Amino acid sequence: MQDRFEKITQYLVVPLKGDARERTVACEYFRKEKDEWIAVSGNDLRSHKKDILCITQPPYEEAVKRVPTVDPCLHLFAGVAKTRDTSRSMPNLMQVIDGAIIVAVYPNTSRSLILIFQRFTNDKEFGELVATTDPDVKNDPDAC
Fold first, then answer.
1. pLDDT value of residue 2
2. Angle, CA 101 vertex, CA 99 and CA 103 arms, to 5°
3. CATH of domain 9-139
4. CA of 118: how far to CAs of 24, 36, 78, 96, in Å?
5. Are 44 and 138 within 8 A, CB to CB?
6. What is the pLDDT of residue 143?
7. Relative to the CA of 136, which of 39, 83, 105, 120 has its CA 20 to 30 Å away?
8. Number of CB atoms found within 10 A of residue 70's CB
9. What is the DSSP letter of 141?
10. Contact status, residue 78 vs residue 101, Cβ threshold 8 Å
11. 0.85 surpassed by pTM
């Protein structure tokens, strides 16, 4: 089956284990190219194909093979963005739909994006919301 997001630049986010009392979570980011995961900085997420990009959290079983320190209790929930470099309006709240967050990024703009994860207890009950630090999302057509 053809991946419906294949024409959009795709990133994977992997939340890392840390102190469960913290309200922020460190993450590793990867650009997905077919079956390959290419490590990227959270400050360098770029839209290479269109004016949007897609961020998904891979299944735990897949993530733990590449990132042994993945936190199995955290699940991607939403994203909140602040647009810089333009007065054009873009959506600021993005909910996970079908496992993905779609982020609009107009040409020559940057956005600060905070990803929000749900933390579940070992009993699979909802515990709390935690957020990432502030990764940057960019659309710089000249850099693509």
1. 40
2. 160
3. 2.60.40
4. 11, 27, 9, 11
5. yes
6. 46
7. 120
8. 21
9. G
10. yes
11. no
